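Continuing the series of single-chain predictions for the mutant panel. This is the parent chain; the variants come on the following pages.
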Amino acid sequence: MSNFNTPMHQRRLRRSLTDRYVAGVLGGIAETYDWNPTLVRLIFIAVAVLGTGTPLLAYVIAWFIMPTE
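Parent structure:
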């Protein structure tokens, strides 16, 4: 599903049901902003490894807050 032609204020951030490995959070982010899902995952992993663990906590929180498609 492409959101490129959808105005920014009408886009809804949702967990992906089709592009998911764990909970679909990163796939949903990629679908919402029309980004490459692999790139989103690689950036997330890099930030999680180099960071303090905050991205992992943010992922778990997003898992419970974000609705599914």
